[in-house]
Structures are given as C-alpha cells and as structure tokens.
C-alpha cells in the first residue's frame, strides 16, 4: 500500500512509481530507483511497464528474499517478541539450504528431504522449521509472490507429549541451589500454572488486591490468580531482589538496572541453578525443563480435569490432560469405596 500522493493527479500511478526528471521511476524500499519509461508515455504504458518489471522481479526472487520480505512485514511485527526470535532462528537454518533457490522451484519432495535430514538430529526442530517455512510461503502466496506452498502435504514428525513430572524433592533441590530471582520465578510459574514468558512479563500493575492478574500470551485467557500465603511470599521474594539505587522497576521480576529479563537471560540462570542442584545431588536426575513446572502445578492441583482446566486457562480439557502428569493412585480389586 502506498501513502497518500502529494498531487492528487498522480493517484492513477502504480504503487511506488513517481515522476522523475525525465522518466517514470519505481522506488524500492531500499532506496534504489529503476527507470520504467519516459514521461511522455500514456498511463496504460506506465502500468504495463510497471507490471512487466514486477513480473521480472518475481522471476529473479529467491527464497532468501521471500523470507526477508516476510520478516519485515506487518504480519511478522504483530507476533510476540519471543516468536519473532524463534522465526529468525528457523530462518538461519533454512536459508543456507534453500536461500538461493527461486521459491517456485521448491517442491514438496525438497521439503521432505530437508525434513528427513534435519529429523536425524532433531525431529522437533524439523517440525518447527517446516511450520515457519509453510507460513512464509502462505504469506507470499496471498500477496502474489509465489504460486503455491510446497510444504502442504508434507507430514510432520509425530511429537510425543512430555510425561515428565517434577517430584517435590527435585523441585526443592533446584530451589535450594537457585538465586532468589530464579526462586521467585519458579514459585510464580508453579503456583499460578503459568508459562515462563507470562511470569517474566509480569508488571506491578498486575498485582491486585484479589490476586495476580495474568493474561496468557498463548491462549489469551484472562485470570486473577487468588492470593495464598505461598503466593504472597513469592512476590515478596521477587521484591527482595536487589535493584540499583534510585531505580524503580515496572516489572515484578527485574534485573538490577530495572529492566525485565529476556528469555535467554533467564534461561542462563535457570541452567546454572540446575547444574548446581545436580552437583549437590549427584544421584538425582535433574532433567526437567522450566515448562515442566507448569505441568507440576496442574498435576498437583486437586479436583477433576474440568476443574483443573478452569484454573489453568486452557481452551479445552484435552490440553489440560497433557499437563496432568502425576501418576494416579487407584484402588485394587475389592478395596474400592462403596
């Protein structure tokens, strides 16, 4: 979409086409200028030369250029910051393989070969990179940059749902080895059944009289997590983390300069806490992820699956069931309650 023309008589012109000194010119986003035709040409000729040039550019496009367009698009900038970081990471894996290829020359069998090879190292990452590639092609197809999406029909690897349940002893081991900031994030994620990014993004204005207001970044579910003594203690622990003199942070979980923690910045400290816990408890298997804390929280909740769903903020109970990992204790034959 072009901006409003200074001269209304120029509204007939194609996007990004302007009158130069001696010719109609196409101005690229990068500032370069291409001569289309002389100023004495008719409007129909100007449009014909414009369309001819655009078609030539499509023929010269590469997958790298298509990805570049997507990464500066409004659709991309509307994504969550962490999702943007992930997409840049996926692009860095795909471009060395497909970057110099014209997008319309990429076929499903090429995508499948990439999946086969990438899957030998990581099936999960192969799935994520293929999903990103499909989104780029879908975006490009809607805007006329490509003729189709070669990712369609290429099956992803079946991903097994995680079943790891963090025991109380394992949780306590990492908690004991962690600094106060990591402890506070652990407690907030566990008690509120919240994702890491939602905890790291908590601001002071989300601390309410009735509890902590959380709008889940993934599902959009809005909840107030009611206060408990342990939850108040977690916020107090976060408040005790040192901050530079004269600095007031808007974030509950903050760095010394008052800024919020990035995912990578926090994960580095989380990783160190697990390594310290492992060193102090060599017989203990500290192989769980931070996201498993949410699963522990949901697993430790009392009540039915429907009741747990209401607390977790999931859209349906099948999602909650994936996080409910605690092995159930059931009666044996003849010992059932009447």
UniProtKB/TrEMBL annotation:
**What are this entry's molecular-function GO terms?**
DNA binding
According to its UniProt entry, one GO biological process term is: DNA integration
Tell me which UniProt keywords the record has, alphabetically. DNA integration, DNA recombination, DNA-binding
| Keyword tRNA-binding in annotation | no
Which domain of life does the UniProt lineage start with? Answer: Bacteria
The protein's matches in InterPro entries, at most eight in alphabetical order, are given as: CB, DNA_brk_join_enz, Integrase-like_cat_sf, Integrase_catalytic, Integrase_recombinase_N, Tyrosine_recombinase_XerCD
Keyword Transmembrane helix assigned to the entry: answer is no
| SUPFAM superfamilies on file | DNA breaking-rejoining enzymes (SSF56349)
- Pfam families associated with the record: Phage_integrase
Residue ranges annotated for the Core-binding (CB) domain, each copy included: 61-141
What family does this chain come from, according to its entry?
Belongs to the 'phage' integrase family.
| The protein, known as | Phage integrase family protein
Species of origin reads Serratia symbiotica SCt-VLC
């Amino acid at each position: 979409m072009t901006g409003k023309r200074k001269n209304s008589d120029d509204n007939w012109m194609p996007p990004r086409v302007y009158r130069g000194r001696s010719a109609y010119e196409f101005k690229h986003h990068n500032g370069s200028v291409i001569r289309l035709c002389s100023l004495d040409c008719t409007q129909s000729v100007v449009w014909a030369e414009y369309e001819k040039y655009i078609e030539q550019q499509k023929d010269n496009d590469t997958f790298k250029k298509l990805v570049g367009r997507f990464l500066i698009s409004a659709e991309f900038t509307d994504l969550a910051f962490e999702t943007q970081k992930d997409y840049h990471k996926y692009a860095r894996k795909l471009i060395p393989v497909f970057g110099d290829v014209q997008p319309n020359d990429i076929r499903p069998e090429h995508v499948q070969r990439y999946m086969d090879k990438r899957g030998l190292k990581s099936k999960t990452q192969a799935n994520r990179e293929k999903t990103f590639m499909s989104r780029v092609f879908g975006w490009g197809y809607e805007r006329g940059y490509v003729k189709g999406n070669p990712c369609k029909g290429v099956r992803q690897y079946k991903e097994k749902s995680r079943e790891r349940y963090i025991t109380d002893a394992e949780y306590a081991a990492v908690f004991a080895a962690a600094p106060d900031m990591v402890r506070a994030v652990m407690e907030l994620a566990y008690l509120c059944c919240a994702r890491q990014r939602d905890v790291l993004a908590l601001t002071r204005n989300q601390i309410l009289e009735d509890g902590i207001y959380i709008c889940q970044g993934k599902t959009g579910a809005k909840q107030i997590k009611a206060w408990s003594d342990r939850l108040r203690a977690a916020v107090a622990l976060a408040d005790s983390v040192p901050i530079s003199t004269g600095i007031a942070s808007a974030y509950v979980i903050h760095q010394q300069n008052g800024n919020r923690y990035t995912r990578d910045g926090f994960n580095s400290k989380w990783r160190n806490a697990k390594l310290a816990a492992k060193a102090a408890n060599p017989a203990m298997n500290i192989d769980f992820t931070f996201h498993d804390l949410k699963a522990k929280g949901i697993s430790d909740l009392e009540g039915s699956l429907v009741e747990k769903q209401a607390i977790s903020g999931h859209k349906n109970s099948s999602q909650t069931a994936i996080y409910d990992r605690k092995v159930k204790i059931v009666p044996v034959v003849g010992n059932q309650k009447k």
